[in-house]
Amino acid sequence: EKLQNHLVVKAYTKRAGNPDAEGNITLSRDQYNSHRFPVDYVNAKFFVIKSYSEDDVHKSVKYGVWSSTPGGNKRLGSAFEDARRIAATGVECPIFLFFSVNASGQFCGVAEMTGPVDFNRDMDFWQQDKWSGSFSVKWHIIKDVPNHHFRHIVLENNEGKSVTNSRDTQEVARKKGLEMLRIFRDANAKTSLLDDFAYYENRQRVLFEER
Q1: Could you tell me which residue ranges the YTH domain spans (predicted)?
Q2: N or C: which end of the chain has fewer CB within 10 A?
Q3: What contacts 159, CB < 8 A, 6 or more positions away?
């Protein structure tokens, strides 16, 4: 159905998300999950992002921002500066973030870090108040891909554990990151966070009205 292609949602904040004059944010489904999404990069950085709740991932998609722990923000911030230095030599160096909600048994999407960490720019909508600082992200892939698709990818920089057993902001080496990107793009997902967007919108509205 054509109507389903656009998600129009309430902003509930002035800190992020580019709302229109009515305070709405419009997301279009066809900006995600393109079969033509490039998965080969001469230079790129990759990190696993672990979220405590799907609600926060919903807000990241909606507002185009993310906030990590103080340590995570530092690690991603210096990776972004490093990528900027590389880009200055004429070779682009995107930073891709593989999102997974704790204990969900799956990864739920891929976003690209598009701006530096602003350690003083806090958001007012995360599930917990402990997240400070933020940075902009652009979501490319939103689909639920079960862990078993990635279990064979082993990280030497994490004691030889599988990437599915990563902590937040665990870095993934380029070749393995590219492989994950390809698996993500080509996976036939039955479900995605976009299917439940209305549910999370409703939860956010209730929380917002309680505050």
Answers
A1: 44-184
A2: N
A3: none
For the chain, how many helices (H) and strands (E)? 4, 10
* Residue-by-residue DSSP string for 128-184: STT---BEEEEEEEEEEEEGGGTTT-EEGGGTTEEGGGPPTTEEE-HHHHHHHHHHH
Q: What is the pLDDT along the chain (211 residues), one digit of tens a residue?
A: 344 688 899 999 989 998 999 999 999 999 999 999 999 999 999 999 999 999 999 999 999 999 999 999 999 999 999 999 999 999 999 999 999 999 999 999 999 999 999 999 999 999 877 788 999 999 999 999 999 999 999 999 999 999 999 999 999 999 999 999 999 999 999 999 999 999 999 999 988 888 7
Three-state DSSP state, 88: helix
Is 0.85 surpassed by the pTM of this model? yes
**Cβ-proximal residues to 80 (8 Å cutoff; 6+ apart), any chain:** 95, 113, 115, 116, 117, 135
